[in-house]
Fold each of these.
Amino acid sequence: PRLLVIHGPNLNLLGAREPKYYGLTTLADINLALARRAEAAGVQLDSFQSNHEGALIERVHAARDEGVRYIIINPAAYTHTSVALRDAVAAAGIPFIEVHLSNVHAREPFRHRSYFSDLAIGVISGLGSEGYLLALEYLISKLKAD
Ligand code: DQA
């Protein structure tokens, strides 16, 4: 796949999980919308979710071998804790956009720090599930310009 979407822990519960922060859209809905948009643009896109740090790291390593061009990643709680996942994306050297459904800066102070933002092309936070589609739109135009 040319593009990879990575969803971190607890995002499998989207739709049911704290809708005040994360909305009512399920992860399957998000992945379907992304797949449809990518297909319409003639771009290959894969989605992956895991609740395990090591599985996320290994998916990033595999992306490097697959020649994935860009990653859209919502590291979820690992955003604020995982030096290991940060090191994996740095090692893979694949440019990425960091997405959060909620506005992490309007929430608890421990959510204000990200181990990813300084490495990201850019960050989208607080636009709900739309954020993923906006990130995809940007990458589609970037792929065309590359
Ligand atoms: C999140 C924000 C994180 O702080 C939180 O741990 C999540 C989801 C978001 O998409 O808003 O699990 O990444």
Note: Strands lie at 3-7, 45-49, 70-74, 96-100, 122-125.
Amino acid sequence: KEIVMSGIRPTGFLHLGNYFGALRNYVRMQDEFECYFMVADLHSLTTHPDTKELKGHVHRVLAENIACGLDPDKVALYCQSHVYETAELYLYLNMLAYTGELEKTVTFKDKVRQHPENVNAGLLTYPVLQTADIILHRASYVPVGKDQEQHLEMARKFANRFNHRYGDVFPEPHAFNYGGELVKIPSLDGTGKMSKSENQYATLYLADDDDLIRKKVMKAKTDSGPTEPNSVMPDYIENIFQLMRLVSSQEVIDKFTADFNGCTIRYGDMKKQLAEDMVNFIAPIREKAESIRTNEKYLKEIMEKGAEKARKSAKATIELVRNAMGLNYY
Ligand code: ATP
């Protein structure tokens, strides 16, 4: 079986972007591949050094992963910091990554702009740690959203660089989405992507209650509608259609598309429909996650079992790495 690896940072509540960019793929992949899915707690320290809420967020991410359909018996579901081998591989890979190329990473440049007071070395080497996470299991497929595309390119570069310098140990990891193209779920205000830690009022979280979902959807940016038949759709309207395609029936989508093209669309009605379809999609996940999140004994068992599976695979890779690098002295 080919190997799959991915992770989500415990930086807040999971949202529709995490679901449609990542989790939906995880759930399908668990029946086809050998899967490693982690809560990326070490990665969260690059931007969230305060750990007061970390435990709660780790529990939440685990619970939401399971509520979305991930089966801890089929996959290794674990915490990044429980797999110590990650840190060792990260160290070796840091010697193969050049500061110049890391400084050019788009996400790094964004973070420098957003938080100039906390440009730490961990932030710069984020793509190196992410490469370590992935190739530690010699994974070939990495289900992620579009925002991770460049990181995956870097992971391929670092894996290949290791192979060229020390011998073939790692397969090339590739970003993966069942639809082909990687997904980017836009925020409701049309300014960027949905996110755990930015754009909170324009992001739909899997923990949002029904009224909050309705409120957020009704606030999504629209205008007074097209005045000419078959007009070009503005980005923010296209975003609403994109969200509709995720949760609404084909009939509903066809109706509003025809209304748009015929200039009879009423965005208030469209958003009401979208809000109800969102509520129906999110409510069962929210309720299931809530009952898992508060069962600490169960979560502990999951984490222990996941770490054991992940470390078995990690140890085997580290052995290969040390041998390839000539770090075996007796
Ligand atoms: P943060 O705001 O803390 O950076 P995030 O919401 O961007 O968090 P990550 O933990 O960085 O989430 O990413 C987890 C997974 O969800 C990744 O595979 C990422 O590509 C995917 N993802 C995050 N946001 C979106 C989005 N808006 N659309 C599609 N995929 C997304």
Note: The chain has two domains: 3-185+296-325, 208-289.
